[in-house]
Amino acid sequence: MTLERPLTPTILALRQFLVIADCPEAWKAYDLYLFRDGDLVFYVGRSQTAFTRVWTHLIDGFKGRSLIGRFILMNWPRALHFTVELMGSQDLQFATLGHSVEAAEAALIEQYAPCLNEMLNRLPTPLPACYNPPTAKGRRPRSPNRMIHDAEQANRWADRQRYSNEER
What is the pTM of this model? Predict the structure, then answer.
């Protein structure tokens, strides 16, 4: 028996995601994930644990084994402001799909027509010219540790900006 429960999606900037080393217990129920920039969705995926899969994409981008991981690297440091959205197929919004993670992923791909999903995507959204494609050449971070360092700096800068705005 599938237990329907509202799983509030977790939405955070990639710069925030990168400084979280271990999956929080509450996030272990998430089995779907999206990479986006505003309303533009780049990629939708599914995994037993979405948090772990997102990290795998990021690491595999360095090895050329993940299209979305490579895309993030080729759009660095701008990608720090991309959004990672984690959600669960057990959420009420997927009840009509029988809470099937495969059906939920297919529905999200149909809804958003992500730029980089090749499977299940009849009409992918063309990648706007303002983004570097995953096949681009150019400067990028040389290691995951460098990405994390950049994310920490971006988070400190965002915190300083927020504090200075609060003081006014």
Answer: 0.89
